[in-house]
Amino acid sequence: MQPDVVVVGAGIIGAACAEALSAAGVRVTVIDRGTPAGGTTAAGEGNVLLSDKPPGPELALAQASVARWPKLLATLRDLLGSEQAEVEWDAKGGLVVALEHAEALAEFADHQRSAGVRADLITASDALELEPNLTPDVTAAVHYPDDAQLQPVLAATTLLAAVKRRGGEVRGDVAALGIRPGGLRTSEGFLNCGAVINACGPWAGQFSERVGAPINIQPRRGVVLVTSHTPFTVRHKVYDADYVGAVESGAADLQTSTVVESTRAGTILIGSSRERVGFDDTMRVPVLRELARKAVRLFPGLARVPVMRAYGGFRPYAPDHLPVIGPDPRVPGLWHATGHEGAGIGLAAGTGQLIADLFLGRPPVVDPLPFRVDRPEVTPCT
Fold this sequence. Notes:
Pfam families: DAO. One of its GO terms (molecular function) is oxidoreductase activity. This protein is an alpha/beta fold. It is built from 9 helices and 19 strands. The protein has an 8-stranded mixed beta sheet with strand order 5-6-4-14-15-16-13-17. A hairpin with a 2-residue loop joins strand 10 and strand 11.
């Protein structure tokens, strides 16, 4: 059966858009030039965060996503069964700590509270009670009870399983070549459809050029360390206050900040780094050393825990740090859902809902205007 919509990109964002549309009765086909959930999603940590976002459109989308994720997962369990819908959801909460500049951390949390975020300023001794392995050099901390974590590949494949259960199709190793009236040209032939969603992540800029509607989405590389199985535990998602600045920065050179969390597998994930190096996937030892050094400063006991491996990936970076979500006025039938950078896992549920709302003409879950494609930072002047 001919699909109504073809989603190009089977990562977490494409999967969430496809799931939300299929739940509303839209016929969906998802294609990916590689393995579904095998690109940026496979290189993610699984962050579902409010704590790193200042008041504004992205925080509003994050709040909608945090509210939607548990309901969406319950729907998926009802549809697929508990075993197939297991995504390792963990509402563990987040802890942001300051080793210096405690005033700036408190001010940031105060602004978030004004936007409805639960951000509880606590003392250093309170932080050590929550995380006994923290360095005693902590001067202040903010507890975010609504931060959560999930396993990104499991989440994406579960969303795609729901699409298939509802009669949709998911096809890997199929490249999108261009849009023609009536559908999409692919490496496997022409797909008739009414709309195409560009959910290509860091490659969304390349795809947009191919279809004649370029958007300024660039890859931003990040690296994560993974320890061996260890009894050393981190109860929350813990990061230092510098992380917010790194997320908001548009600098191309290397930036690192400490992010540490345990997984259900008994390992510890250590991040994070950001640098714009194109699609160069070289693993640089100085970056790994810097991540390890900063993690040990935050959790001194990690010095005795061996690192098992490291992995890296590319995040879809938009110059104004806002996703691109919605229709493209330049090419009839073309939609975009990209530019989430390192927040795609957490923002996916809200993004899928927003795409479905706009596509079906429903009241949108958040104001779509800030995410429109025809904004100067994203659409080059012609």
